[in-house]
Amino acid sequence: MYIDKSKISTELEKAEISVSYYEHRNQLTLIVAKENLLKLMNLLKTSPELDFDMCLDVTAIDWMKKNDRFEVVYNLYSNNYKYYLRVKTPVNEHDCKCPSVTSIWASANWYERETYDMYGIIFENHPFLRRFYMPEDFKDPVTEEPIYPLRKDVPLMGIPDALPLPPYPEKFGDLN
After folding, report:
1. How many Å apart are CA 176 and CA 167, to the nearest integer?
2. How far is CA 48 from CA 75, 80, 81, 99, in A?
3. What is the rounded distance in angstroms from the CA atom of residue 82 to the CA atom of residue 152?
4. 10 lies in a domain?
5. Within a domain: residue 154?
6. Strands 83-91 and 27-31, how do they pair?
7. 108 or 168, higher pLDDT
8. What confidence tens digit (pLDDT) does each residue in 117-160 have?
9. Could you report the per-residue pLDDT of 60-98, keeping only the tens digit for each?
10. CATH number of the domain to which 53 belongs
11. CB 54 within 8 A of CB 107
12. Based on the structure, what is the number of domains in the chain?
């Protein structure tokens, strides 16, 4: 079950935190500027009326837009009230940084590392931000820039000459 908008808006007004609301099929999403992200997340966790004690996931969306290309998405849960909440914060490609919430939820550590590895979003003040799935030297062979596989500007067939493709006997027959 998702939290009621009126319940959360009352708490945000008291704390003077500015957010936008988006509701779709009874699922509430808060959209907040990254400058206010830590203040909002701290309130969501520490407020007894909200009590979002679990960070279930951190991921990102690449909208491939000129302004605010990425959105960092946090899925939160309150064990006490059995509520879900989604929080999004826009991130510009040219300043591809977002504050880390690991000081609020320790579980965000791995989720933020995964998001960094796949999208290249740097989480400031993260205790150990490094690649999660891909090798540390996963770079374009020509430009030497790091490659982030879930960005929409990465070629669908991969980077030429980066890694050999596995055998494909369904198409070419048995090569032995």
Report:
1. 11
2. 19, 10, 10, 24
3. 35
4. yes
5. no
6. parallel
7. 108
8. 999 999 999 999 999 898 888 888 888 889 899 999 887 776 76
9. 999 999 899 999 999 999 999 999 999 999 999 999 999
10. 3.30.460.80
11. yes
12. 1
